[in-house]
Amino acid sequence: MIGHPARGPALAITLLAATAGCNGALDEAPVPGAQHGPYAAPPEGAVPLGGPLPESDEDALEDVTNPAGVGRLTLVRGRELYSIHCAPCHGDSGKGDGPIAPLLSEETPDLTHPELQAEASDGALVHVIATGTMSEVMPGFAADIPVADRWVLVRYLRSIRRTAPASRSSPRSNSPADPN
Description:
Radius of gyration: 24 Å
Number of helices: 7
Number of strands: 0
Strand content: under 5%
CATH class of the domain at 70-163: Mainly Alpha
Distance between the termini: 74 Å
Shape: globular
C-alpha cells in the first residue's frame, strides 16, 4: 500500500471532484458547541482583551481599569511596542523629539509631561492609540496593535513618566485631552 504510484494522483483527483461542488457551503455550516444567535452582554466594566473595543467612544473607556500586568515582562513588551510604533515621533524617552517629529505639521506631545500623564486616563490613551488624534497628525493603530497590546503600551507609557529626564514646559499640542 505504501508507495503505490497510482494511489496519490487518484486520491487527489477523487478529493478534488468531491469538493468541486461545495462553493463554500462548509464555511457557513454551524460549528458544534459554538454559541449562535444573540450574544449575552458583557458584565459592566468588562475589558475585552482580544475583541473589539468601543474605540469610537472615548467616554466608554474613561473609567476602565488597565488589565495589563505591572511586571517586568509587561514593561519589556511595552518598550518593544513603543520602539516600533511611537519612538519615531515621540523619541526614545517620550519627549516628542523623535527623528520624524521635525517633519510633522504640529509639535509632537511630550508623553512624560506630568500634566499629560495626570489628565489622560489609561482608557483615553488606549483610545488615542487605536484611533489617532483629532488633528490626524497621529494615525490610529487599531489595525496594527492588538487590543491587549494597547493596554500594555499604556502601562509602559505610565512607566516612562517616572524615568524620563526633565521635560519641556508644554506637554503637547495634540494630546488626548486636547479638544483641538
